[in-house]
DNA sequence: TTATATGCAAAGCTTTTGCGCTGGC
DNA sequence: GCCAGCGCAAAAGCTTTGCATATAA
């Protein structure tokens, strides 16, 4: 918790003021490779600094998202989940049985998406692709 | 407003009890080809029956969604939007400048999505693909 | 020092729910 | 007549915000 996290470095690149709470929240988000919701981020942050309030977590993840260093996801649960902007873009496959989240990349899909936007006269600035699946019967379970 | 809407027929097929409010909400959702949120559905329903409450609209769209005759969308506005389950599946391109919603279909993407799920040992039961774009000429100007 | 960030609590928004009454079947 | 559905209002769940204080630069 003393070394600056990858996210903290990105904050500095963006010229964000690095306060105590922001450093802790950045560290927490860098450390975990899952997709925590705000309450989970807060719970983890409080372990490092028990004074951090949930309001600050909300303000900070919004700030980080607007700075382009965090991605917000909504997996249809009525609340947001966050992850570091990944080095390489990926989409998500959600296991409806276990709620596991599997990340994947597909060049073809990325290319076709751009083409579709172009076809309608748009420049694609963002997209969201989520697959919802159940374990196939005839393959081994994880 | 006296003829049964397409949605009302689908309700009957599913064995849902057709009350006054449900008939009105089904008609309203069948009549408009856009993607109204719950408040808009309610506003339109009230024109036909001023006693319909927003609670009933919430209950009804949830019922319809669970019956598989309505699709719920979340276009990152913090509230749900609904549309009739379409005759042919389509995805959405959202114009970030005007909030226009453009529907499109792409066979290739559908096929690749199934393949990806398979590759990870899943059967794809649902997916969500949204493209967010800005008009191409605008992006040139900036 | 001075602007910005924080903590706390209150409020905002969308959505759900408890309850007594209404109305389809 | 019964039981599901309805309207109303209250509440739940997530998120934002006003304000006084604390802190980074």
Quote the average pLDDT of chain A: 89
Rounded to an integer in angstroms, the radius of gyration calculated over CA atoms of chain A is 17 Å
SS elements, strand count of chain A: 5
**Main sheet: strand order of chain A:** 4-3-5
What oligomeric state do these chains adopt? homodimer
Q: What share of residues are in beta strands of chain A?
A: 15-25%
Q: Helix count of chain A, per DSSP?
A: 5
Order of helices and strands of chain A: HHHHEEEEHE
User: Helical residue percent of chain A?
Assistant: 40-55%
The structural class of chain A is: alpha+beta
Distance between the termini of chain A: 33 Å
Low-confidence stretches of chain A: 138-142
How would a textbook summarize the main sheet of chain A?
A: 3 strands, mixed
- Report the principal-axis shape of chain A: globular
Find the biggest chain interface.
A-B, 37 and 35 residues
């Amino acid at each position: 918790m003393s070394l600056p996290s990858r996210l903290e470095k990105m904050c500095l690149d963006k010229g964000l003021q690095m306060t105590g709470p922001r450093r802790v929240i950045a560290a927490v988000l860098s450390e975990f490779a899952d997709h925590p919701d705000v309450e989970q981020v807060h719970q983890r942050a409080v372990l490092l600094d028990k004074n951090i309030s949930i309001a600050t977590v909300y303000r900070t993840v919004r700030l980080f998202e607007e700075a382009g260093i965090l991605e917000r996801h909504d997996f249809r649960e009525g609340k947001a989940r966050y992850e570091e902007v990944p080095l390489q873009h990926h989409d998500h496959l959600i296991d409806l049985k276990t709620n596991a989240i599997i990340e994947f990349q597909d060049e073809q899909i990325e290319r076709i998406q751009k083409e579709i936007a172009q076809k309608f006269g748009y420049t694609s600035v963002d997209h969201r692709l989520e697959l919802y699946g159940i374990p196939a019967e005839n393959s081994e379970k994880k």
